[in-house]
């Protein structure tokens, strides 16, 4: 009989769950779902328990079974996890500074869908999102108990030169420390953020230089530059295709200014930090950072269009 998870990493999205998955899956004492992010207890619940269980059938009998899905840090998924996996399930959640997380998510959605629209329309309800996160955390403690809940912070546990999340997770799960994750951690982020963009070359190729590399956009082509898996090229695009692409691009928010950061921080982030600290004993002092500008480097063309200069 296929075993189901005894621990779940709930999220948040854009808070390092991909790196957590890649590190833990290399540990022979742990067996994770294939693939990552089943989203069963959130968007895929109608597919039923048999569909869910089949994603763990490959795991060896001696391994501890777990799942990583960043969409689970919400009230309904947490309740479903307790009902279907049991209240002795260990749950892990990762929090990231809300403005940075929201902007990173905004850019990821552009990369994946090439959708138009600015950032500020997406964060109008940030305070409501944070209230839902607070309720999800409350359910974690109420349903599973404090001993079965591990809170982590993206900025302290993951996005550091020497991330310590693997040791913390293994200790929390009652597993011995391992070094399987070290080579991965030295390689940096798994899904680094970029500022997507369109590049259009008309009658001659466009050449871009970055560090010791050169990228060539072929003539008569419209290229969408994003994360590698989302980038694409359109050969001989119609004028309307180019115009629509540039119109979408002009609607994107290319940075968060210090003033905008301060306004959003005051309205939504600081009140949420106060509530979360008072209610759950979390240390969110890093959410009270000085207002900062957020800018991502523009994405370069896909690797197949790269030429080394050395």
From TrEMBL:
Protein origin, superkingdom: Bacteria
GO molecular function: sulfotransferase activity
Keywords: Transferase
InterPro entries: NST/OST, P-loop_NTPase
The protein's name in its UniProt record: Uncharacterized protein
